[in-house]
What we know:
This protein has 304 residues and is α/β, with parallel strands linked by helices. 30% of the residues lie in helices and 24% in strands. The protein has helices spanning 23-36, 53-65, 85-96, 107-114, 122-128, 170-179, 203-214, 223-226, 265-274; strands at 4-5, 16-19, 38-41, 47-48, 73-78, 83-84, 101-104, 182-187, 193-198, 217-219, 231-234, 240-245, 256-260, 279-284, 287-293, 299-303.
Amino acid sequence: MAPAPGLTGGGRDTPERRAGADPDHTVLAARSIADDGTIRLPFGRGRTSPIAAADVARVAAEILADPAAHREYVYELTGPRSQDMDGVAAEFSRALGRQVTYVDVPPDEWANLVAPQTDLFAFTRDHDAPAPPEPLRPGDHDRRTGDGTAGAQRRGVRRRAGRARRPPARRLRSRAAGGGFCVTLRRVPRFHHANLGVPPDAADAEAEFLVGVLGYRRLEPPPAALGRGARWFEADDGTQVHLSLDPDHVPAAKAHTAIEVGADCAAIEARLSAAGIPFTAGDFDGRRIVICRDPAGNGWELRG
Length: 304
């Protein structure tokens, strides 16, 4: 399998959903409402768009049923309107038939409140207690559109080629419309290619390195680029490496191209040795890392 250059180790192939409120914050708010009729949270005077946990779960289930259809999207989930915490408290008051007020909790008090809670998600305790979140500023998490509604649905999702298309997540929008919440789609930027300079007399050796050692396949450049001596190569996932002839090429001392090679790492090490290309290899953060330079002197990090 050909490698995939680009952002490494960041989970770019995984759909992401972002909810408008942390469920654990809601749990803590429920406790203080029961105790003394207050919502005690470090949210300041900012605005947010709370969403029911059941709605988040429905969207997550839809994504997990067909992850591949959603892999290039981030879904930002918001409630039906944007409001400050006084507005949230007013909703609780109406629902419970008694007065509920919002109390802006200082960060130190919030940390002391979260730390002893043993039934919260570990992320909440580890993230919020040691370093309490900064209070929300006006506009933070305020996802209103120009007409004052929350959760603008972005309809301009496009293919890489620039043609508009209907995203595969339209079912999520349908569910949102019936469930009183909003789904905002954001296309994740996708790595396209790295352009490497090579001296003209090293172009053939560089091409052999990419194809014979790393496993890329040759790709025909458009006529304009071909006329300048460019050479293009493509991985199985469609990401590319372009070579540009540069008589004055000077390899960068630290800049390099990092690619994921996975289970092919041992085979690539063997091919590097067979080609007489020096490299260093070792384990770092639980994975095999190989560092080398190609025939043009450009640096490479091969991540197993």
